[in-house]
Amino acid sequence: MIPFDKLLNPEQLEAATAPDGPLLVLAAAGTGKTQTLVYRVAFLVEQGQAPDSLLLLTFTNRAAREMIERAQAAAGEAAGGVWSGTFHHICNRFLRRFGDRLGFRHDFTIFDRDDSRACIDECVKTLKLNRKEFPKRDVLAGLFSHAANRAVDVEDAIEHNLSALQVDPMDIVRVHGAYEARKRELGAMDFDDLLVNGLRLLREHEPVRQYYQARFRHVLVDEYQDTNLLQAQTVDILAAQHGNVMAVGDDFQCIYGWRGADFRNIMEFPKRHPACRIVKLERNYRSVPEILEVANAVIAGNPEQFQKTLRATRPARDKPRALFLRDGDEQARAVVRQVRRHQEEGFRLRDMAVLYRAHFHSIELQMELSRAGIPYVITSGVGVFEQAHVKDVLAFLRVCCQPCDRLAFARLLGMLPGVGEKSVEALWRELGGQFDSAAPPQRAALAGRLRPPARAAWKAIGELLAAYHDERLETRGGEIVDRFFEAFLHAHLERTYENAEKRADDIVELALQIGRSPSVPAFLAEVALLTNVDHTFDRQKRGEDADALQLGTVHQAKGLEWPVVFVIWVAEGMFPSSRTLGETGDDAEERRLFYVAVTRAKDELCLCVPQMRGAREGGVFYCKPSRFIKELPRGLLRETYGLR
DNA sequence: GTTGGGAGAATTTTT
DNA sequence: TTCTCCCAAC
User: Fold this and answer.
1) Is there a catalytic annotation at residue A223?
2) Which runs of E-coded beta strand occur in A463-591?
């Protein structure tokens, strides 16, 4: 028997051991939300629930893995059988199994951002709309995604977003139609399609719905405040039969509104589930009282939320600092100095993090850290699996096992000398709209159609494709990647990039990663859904990273904590970001984001406020301290000016 | 048709 | 500073 009452405080205990029925846990930052979910899982398993009748939906793969591991530690290995992952992951699993009901192959490809963008470009071109003033692919992609995640028509999304634009909305609707058709044709889904189709599958196919409804006796959702309409509906359908749905979240921390997250989902949960029991967790175990005072004051600026106050449990320490600095360079030097000071006090580099609103805010700091010789890891905007050279390898693997994957085919062939877009198109057509690398005649046909220079370069790749099938390398992904690298990619990288060695290291890493997956197709199905946050976390966990300072956006820091946290560019226009304010004029979400940043800190918090920002062409312009600092009552921060 | 150079623009947050 | 697009040469 697990001694729940010894491990949990009364509120946590109430949530973890609650009887069946809907349950809403309002868990403020640092109040043991994860702990509560972990022990809820442990409790259910101990009560005799079959682990695979539990579904745990989380926001990152990292969170899912962490909770399952901890549940295993508490309730035994069996807890590993719980279904867990992100909404995208779980929908992916549903669709791999039952997607044929919607007309998809079981080996459909998942478009990542680049794939979507390329595909949209293609559609715009085909429709001959590629005029200068026509919206760019990113704008279009954003629009389509906006519509999908809110379950509205593209027309409505256009009206909502681009009413000022001088474009015929019907043209955009036509691009959208073409994009949808193209994905169909290629047997592909983009990120949003996973959610849309996952929900459609449950809605429109009763046997599938009944199967999953019967199967999942309990549905648990982490970070519920960041669910969008599709996700909330998916949860409600899955839990409809047994009625056991547990939503855990904090409306103060809803920071994905721009992606369709709607904190009304959490606000109205009690209305949708009238019998629901509500538990509030307010005792904060993470931060010192001085930091919590700042956090409470920050969020007080947002009305209309569930009232929660963070209550401190830790003893007093120093007040958080506000450093007022001249510009980004001085800020970078100040952070370096502070980092060194904390090191002298005994903090390790990995105990410290620098958070910012947007990736480009970190440029000066990165340069200064390099100069100072302080190692750092940055969770960058471009995912590890989105970099060009990594995608080259993935394209090769996709050609190995996905005969209909035209995009991968195009990418792989495009690496050959003298082969570009047009040649690829012609080849694909001549091969009959597919390329089955398992079939020797197809391989021969392809080689035969290449021009001599390309054919020479293809030889090595063709042999590897044969080897993949003949030697059954699908379960030895690491080996096939190494061989592809040796036989072709290494030379290609040398030819194409300045920093070929660095990129080569990434390929070694990739080979290792694939080696941990049961098979190449399994890896490919998951890889588009892995994020760089997951990746950084994995590396740290395996101890592959040396002690290093952590850099990342506030969004990426969600759910994490560090003894020492720096927030940089706490200035109007940067944080809050002028872009967001320009669109809606509403700063509530930015304030919640700032709240998330502040509540990541356990012992020390340092807010950096530069007063000047370099503009283009060498000019400067002044920026005021962020409203989030100005709103605070006086006396909560230790203010210092300049480098000290 | 392909490729590379050069000029120009731009720079939110993510599955 | 880094990506992106367009044009001219092979």
Assistant:
1) yes
2) 549-553, 562-567
Distance B7 C1' – A132 CA (angstroms): 17
Amino acid type, A497: Y
Q: Which residues contact A220 (CB under 8 A, 6 or more apart)?
A: A37, A40, A41, A54, A55, A56, A57, A245, A246, A248
What gap in Å lies between CA A352 and CA A376, rounded to an integer? 10
**How confident is the model at residue A162, as a pLDDT?**
60
Could you tell me how far CA A190 lies from the centroid of its own chain?
14
Apex CA A163: angle with CA A160 and CA A164, to 5°? 140
C-beta of residue A556 within 8 angstroms of C-beta of residue A533: yes
Question: Whole-number Å distance, CA A417 to C1' B2?
Answer: 9
| Longest Cα separation, chain A | 78
d(CA A27, CA A38): 14
**Any idea which nucleotide's C1' is nearest the CA of A255?**
B13
- The question of whether A391 is a catalytic residue gets the answer no
Provide the 10 A C-beta neighbour count for residue A540.
14
* The pair of three-digit structure tokens given for residue A213, joined into one six-digit string: 């409804």
Closest CA to the C1' of B2: that residue is A418
> Is the Cα dihedral A146, A150, A156, A162 positive or negative?
negative
CA distance A27 to A33: 6
| Cβ contact A644 with chain C strand, < 7 A | no
Q: Which two tokens stand for residue A66?
A: 């962490």
Token output for A408 = 């991968």
Task: Summarize pLDDT for A195-221 with one digit per residue, the tens.
Answer: 999 999 999 999 999 999 999 999 999
A222 is catalytic: yes
**A405 is known as an active-site residue:** no
3-class DSSP assignment, residue A633? coil
Distance CA A79, CA A72 (A): 5
pLDDT band at A542 (very low <50, low <70, confident <90, very high): low
| Residue A32 to residues A71, A249, A312, Cα–Cα distance (Å) | 14, 11, 13
Average pLDDT for A277-304: 89
Contact A593, A538 (CB under 8 A): no
Average pLDDT over every residue of A578-590:
76
Average pLDDT over chain A, rounded to whole?
Answer: 86
**Stretch A246-273: mean pLDDT, rounded?**
89
Helix (H, G, I), strand (E, B) or coil at A355: strand
Query: What is the per-residue DSSP string for A473-500?
Result: GGG-HHHHHHHHIIIIIHHHHHHH-TTH
Residue A285 CA distance to nucleotide C5 C1' (Å): 53
Place of tokens 């000047």: A612
Residue A113 contacts strand B, CB under 7 A: yes
A160-174 as b/e: b if 16+ CB within 10 A: ebbeeeeeeeebbeb
Strands A620-622 and A612-614: antiparallel
Q: What is the DSSP letter of A574?
A: B
